[in-house]
Amino acid sequence: MTPNAAPASSGPSRRSFLASSAVATAAVAGGMPLLAACGGSDGGSRDGTTSGKDAEKILPAYVASNVVTPDIPSRNGSAVGFTGKLDLADLKTSVPKKLGKGNKVTVMSPFWGSPPKDGNAYYKAMNDLIGVDVVWQNQDGNTYDQKLGAVLASSEVPDVVVVPGWNMTGRIPSAVIGKFADLGPYLSGDAVKDYPNLAAIPTDAWQRSIFGGKLRGLPMPSSYVSGIVPLYRQDVFEKEGYEVPRSCDEFMALAKDATNARAKRWACLDMKWTAFNAFGVLSGNEKSLGWNEVDGKLIHRIETDEYLEALEWTRKLFAAGVVHPDAELGKSNAADPGPKFAAGEFLIYNQDISQWWSRTAEQATQNPEFKIWGMDFFGHDGGDPALWAQNPASIFAFVNKKASEAVIRDVLAVANVTAAPYGTKEYMATNYGVEGTHYTVKDGVPTKTDQGNIDVMNAYVMIASPAATIAHPDFPEVAKGQVEWQQRMGAFTRKPSFYGMQITEPARYTNLSNDFEQLEDDVVRGRKKIADMQQAVSDWKSKGGDELRDWYRKILDENGPAAG
Amino acid sequence: MSHSTVPRTDTEAEAKNNRPAARGGAGSAKQPPAAGQSLRLRLKRDRVLLLMTLPAVLLVLLFNYVPILGNIVAFQEYDPYISDNGVVSILNSPWVGLENFQRILEDSAFWNAVRNTLVLFILQLVLYFPIPILLALLINSVVRPRVRAISQAILYLPHFFSWVLVIAVFQQIFGGAGILSQLLRAHGYDGLDIMTDPGTFKFLVTAESVWKDAGWGIIVFLAALASVSPDLYEAAAMDGAGRWRRMWHVTLPALRPVIALLLVLRVGDALTVGFEQILLQRDAVGPGAAEVLDTFVWWNGVRNQDFGYAAAAGLVKGVISLGLVLAANKVAHLMGEQGVYKK
Q1: Same domain, yes or no, for A84 and A128?
Q2: 8 Å CB contact of B96 and A325
Q3: What is the value of pTM for the model shown?
Q4: What is the extent of the structural domain holding A129?
Q5: pLDDT > 70? residue A349
């Protein structure tokens, strides 16, 4: 597929096409004229994907860096794991010379938890290390989608904006292409060798960073195994003699057993994501991951029976009263679930795998009995789960296209430090902060201080990261648990048809599936019926879903399915 | 909002307004010009007043009238991301005629939002609007200044809390794991989750509004009550009118113009029913119960970046609101009140 040109030049063809095509509701005349707009022959279009020779031209060269050999090598798509002791004197320096030139760089990024104050010791130390004045504009990660569109529509877009793939709803992909700089001149081919830590980022993560035919993103590489883990209070399970459930029925029985509302204890939060995995529903993480070819026909996740079954089972959990009332609030509940989990108000919730460690570290000093652990996904009927891969990079940092070359270079200087691999001083600074202030080391085990737990949260890691790494010298058993969980789950994970591709859907389909997440939340909370969902799916088909299927079919025919 | 800001253009009002100016020593005002005088003379006479209104007029122009031009995107498939300059984006976005409006008419979510908005408006009119009047009468009947000041302060206070705080407090008390529910559970009853019940959501929203703003709303009524001459009460008492008759025949008639004015303004605002308050609770009960026109516009415009569609919905809302305010004003005139304006 041909990469698209700059937005300005895409004007006429796109405009005339949009003017003639009715958006969603109005009847759209046959598929033919629409399909012509897809990638292929139309040099001016923004949609489609970039692969093959076109991609090779812009991808950065890969130069592996082997600072430390991992204790647990990657298997089944897992991250590499490090479980050894830490020797500060042994840390390598991966950025010998400060690359930053002292420019001010504003960064808007999603943040999960409570952001630390501006100018805290961690931010200062990182900025000194890099030589760039990074100013953070952290936004609540749970409602990031509600702010992103407005910020990008304004004329005051920050220098760097971090966008997770799951927030690329509506017209955000169009904004990414229209508002952010082409980093190709700085990174394509051998140019990336100026930034050795970026050169060590795996190529499949860079492949995902091509938006609208140009290399625009700085990726956060990730394991393709589900990032969502059902996390549970292992200490409470052991004390109460609960067994980890291995089927939906067992989960339900356990949940009923564990719930005692009178004592302010419920079994879990909203388990929708776990249910999707238990029933083998295609990923909703990114639009293109929702499609898969079955017997020569492309099927979308919302069309499957499994999707409805997963929602129905989650609904039963809510109806049984085993879900903490806070979860009823959905996204209206702005509170961090951490404290209530620590207080034992609920015992199971599903969240990003990173919380397995961050909750452990948070509670280690004040709550020594607390033990959080990851539960294996179960097949709904007690068999093996059928899991679907997520993409090998799902979070990207973009640079404002109005930024000067000096600012872009400084952003890359930041990325080159934050992407430093495990075993380097830069990795330690990015992930643990300043020794003495944010962590102390005793017998090769770093322990985060209270200030470390406040200051050193997800900020700098959002700019760019090394190849998926799990290293927690403070809690090596957690690192081991996480990697082994990924390896066990990786064995059940398959890649859907469009795995690994960065696909931008045509503008006329952008709003087609906007409201499904909301409808899911309505259904599981009993406010809407499964029949309403079925109605929405049939509307989706007639309003463009079937055309979208044809559009994806064309991409599949041109690029071939993902390997595996 | 006080009725002194109401613009009056009839000569009688002008003459009245002029009196203080004369006292202030503006020479030309010694002989108030009669109606029909040339515009130039009138401009000259009122120049100080006009000058003083200028900043406000400029602000209104800049922040209320200039943005109206942006409604043009309602007729476009607007994409704000094709340029950093909004005007350039508008010029380069494709025209779609009335398509967005057609979509609105066919969108059940829009009609659901209209229905929720109207139901909420009527609920608030019935359950909320009279409360400040009653409170004002109550406060007005308190004689001791100290008690009066303290109770007024307590009534005003919630107005200064942000909605986030108000809703968090309600959640802590009435939520599924809140004080009330845990108390019920401790005594063997089932918990009660008022905050996530779509059926009673509109009453909840009204209750929150009353708690937060009803106290603040009494200010205008208190001012109107203060202007009632004590002579009237004395005269009524002399004629043998009891407490209730005095209220019925003296107090309420004195409040009538203010009530009518606020009612007209409220009707004009009928379709604006607490954007922030409802947005914060939208996901707690789902859009089916909580979506109002303002959140509908927000969801489609800001969240989904379907700006043209959202602008069209906003425009429809604006037109309906204009119709409502004109109708309400007409009714006020028929009742013999000033209303918001008079021809």
Answers
A1: yes
A2: no
A3: 0.83
A4: 61-225+391-476
A5: yes
